[in-house]
Amino acid sequence: MLTVFGSVALDTIRTPSRTIKNALGGAATYAAISSSFFQKPGLIAVVGSDFPKGYRSLLGKFVDTRGVVSKDGRTFRYDGSYDQTMSMRKTNKTELNVLKDFKPVVPEEYRKSEFVYLANNDPAQNTRIIREFDRVRFSMCDTIDFWISTKRSDVIKMMGVVDSVVINDEEARLLTKAHNLIKAAKKIMEWGTRFVIIKKGEHGSLLFYDDVVFPSPAFSLENIVDPTGAGDSFAGGMVGYLASKNSTRLSAIREAAIYGNVMGSFAVERYGTAGLVSLKREQIAGRFRRYKKMVHF
Ligand code: AMP
Question: Containing domain of residue 220, as a range?
Answer without folding.
Answer: 2-295
